[in-house]
Each structure stands twice: as C-alpha cells, then as structure tokens.
User: Fold this.
Amino acid sequence: MFITLKLKCKRLHKPKKSETKVARFKAVITDYIGTLVNANYYNMEASQRTLYKALTDMGFEIGLPEFLEAYAQSHGKYRAVRYEQFREVTNTVWICEALNSLGCTVNQEDSRIKTALNVFFEQYLESLELRPYAKKLLGRIKEQYKLGLVTNFTYAPVIYASLRNLGINQFFNAVVVSEENGWRKPHTRIFHDTIEKLQVNAEEAIFIGDSPLEDIKGAQAAGLRTVFVASQFYSLKNLNESGQKPDFVASGLEEIYRNFYEIINGLKPRKSFNG
Assistant:
C-alpha cells in the first residue's frame, strides 16, 4: 500500500513540471544577401562611375575625379556611423553631401538622386541570384512557421525589387530593411522590431544567417536561437575565428533544407525573459 501511494504521488507531481515548459517555435527569420542570394559580377568602382554618369546626365556639372573623391570622403564618414553605432544611413545622405561639397545645391528629396540611385544599383540588382535550395527551404519553412527577413541594406527598393524578381516575396510575413528601420544588425533593435511584426516572442523564433557578428551575435543578443550557414562571404573558418557559437552550423542551404525538422526539433527554445 505504501509503495502504491508513493507512485501516485509521483504521478500527481508531473503536471507541475509542464508548467515551466517554454513555448514552441513559431517563426523563422533569415538574412538575405549571402544567406539566401549570391551577389555575382558586381564591381563597386564601375558602379560609382555609373552613378557619376547618371548624375551628369541629369544636369549636375561635376568632374569625375572630384566627384569620386568627394563621394569616398562622404561614404567613409557615414560608414563609421553605420558600423560603429549600427545606425543605418541611406545612400542619398552621402551622395547629397558629396554633391553639396562640390558646389551643387541638392537635398534628399530631389527626385534626381533617387533616379541616379536606381541606375547605380541596377547592375547589383541584376547580379543577385538565389542560392541552391533557397526557394525550397523557404517553402518548407512556410508550411508550418511564420517567415521573416532582416537585411542590412542602404536602399530598400533594391531589396523589394530583388524579392519580386526572384519570385520569393510571397513567402515572407515580414520584411525589415535597415534603411527603413534605422538600425543595422547586430543591434538588437532591428531583431526586436522584426519579431514584433511577426507577433512572436524572441524565444519563439530562430534566425538563419551567414555573418558571425551581424547575424549570429546580433540574433543571440536579441534572444533568438541561431543557425549559421556558410556563404560566399563567410566560411566555416570565419565562424570559428569569430568565436561565435550558433546553435547549429550548416555548410549550405541544402543541409538545412534536408534536415530542417531535425534541426528545429534539436533546438530548445530559450526561456522567456519575462520569467
């Protein structure tokens, strides 16, 4: 009788353990450039010359050497803001500053600047190609989870155009671009804003990215589980050298696609910061 009563007490105690159980995953968020797409045959110097031609075609009277120097100085100035403070600055800011330093009178609302930027990014946009298994992976994720995208990019129209061109815009419940958000990865604000758009908590989301610092470090600091995928920009060696420890490491998207449910089931959601 004593033994039977003891066993019953243990059974009655089990439901209490379930009360501390954390929520299941509800969303997957991915990076874009590098993680889902490759950038091929893009040349920054050639694009700057293309930008110069677009500006002169619209009436700006500037010399090429002077413009390239002014552009480099302005770009370098705001690069420090972007990579040290993680505040995003759009291209229009440093282009306008470069032109004004050369005696032109222009502001960010000038339609000629936006037209020139579209020309500037034309080659880059054309260079973006889906990585193998990217579309299949997005389809698999979308079957059961909300899907978000977070990317650092200084001109949001390029991202939206690329998503449409590659036929994957329909997969995403939320797309957050740093130019529109104002913050860059790895700042936690851009991750928190994304999960808010997805209407999930941080402990209910997984982030897939290729940058050890911007993606893995940033997402973990925001409370998300992380999956690193090697890319044309970041190798497994780069990850090891960074010292970051993602929850799962993949050599490519095919590995994530073929083992997606095993990966998800192997990740334990983080406990809520709310207790």
Remarks:
- The CA atoms of residues 211 and 234 lie 6 Å apart.
